[in-house]
Hints:
By secondary structure, this protein is mostly beta strands. The chain has two domains: 11-136, Jelly Rolls; 139-234, Jelly Rolls (Sandwich), CATH 2.60.120. It is built from no helices and 22 strands. The chain has strands at 2-6, 12-15, 19-23, 41-49, 53-60, 64-71, 73-78, 83-87, 90-95, 100-106, 113-120, 130-135, 144-150, 158-159, 165-171, 176-180, 186-194, 197-199, 202-204, 209-213, 217-222, 226-234. The protein has a seven-stranded mixed β-sheet with strand order 1-20-17-22-15-13-14, with no helix packed on it. Strands 2-3-4-11-6-9-12 form a seven-stranded antiparallel β-sheet, with no helix packed on it. A four-stranded antiparallel β-sheet has the order 5-10-7-8, with no helix packed on it. It is globular and about 45 Å long. The N and C termini lie close together (12 Å).
Amino acid sequence: MNISYYPAQSRGGADYDWLKTNYSFSFAYYMNPRRMGFGPLRVLNDDWIAANSGFPPHSHANMEIITIPFSGTLSHKDSSGGEGTVAAGEVQLMSAGTGITHSEYNTSLDTPVTLFQIWVEPNQMNVAPRYEEKDFEFSKVNNTIKPFITPTGENDTFQIYQDAYFSWAHISSKQNLEYSLHTESHGLFTIVIDGQGSIDHQTLYPRDALEIRHSSSALLQSNTSMRVLLIEVPIQG
């Protein structure tokens, strides 16, 4: 087993007034050659978007883009015809494929939006662009690990163009959960959303992250109620 620990304060960051963000990996003006991604996981941005503001139309290609809000509501519109809103408990998945232009706005006049935006490199290039959103009812997840993105879309999950698995864990205080990887050729990226505990005996606080390689499982232990995002992806080395 190989474990790399990344405390929240080690992330890059930027403050654009309307957007405050922290970067787990190199992005935009933040460049860290030691933090270029984890396998095909290339971006994990922790965003705060002010009321009545957002991202104007911009384009992507050949990238799987996942948005996970924690508060507020984000409105989406894209060139594939995808249009909708996504709020806490819901997840938005967009395959950029051959190319897509989209905008994302916080249309509220007084409530900011907080979210993770995550980019994963696909294993199939130039697919038809698509947009999906779904309420996974994360607030009802209790002392279990809930998969919500898989390579096949089985069991009412989103299907992603990559051999990747996204899961949401909620652990009550003083409880344990074990995550089993699908194969030892995969690695596991974990980030604590809130609460405090440990993963494989590494103490973690909100927004601390852990990368686990060459292991078949990971042990999650809580000291307080704790929510964790787990992303399992293929890795090399």
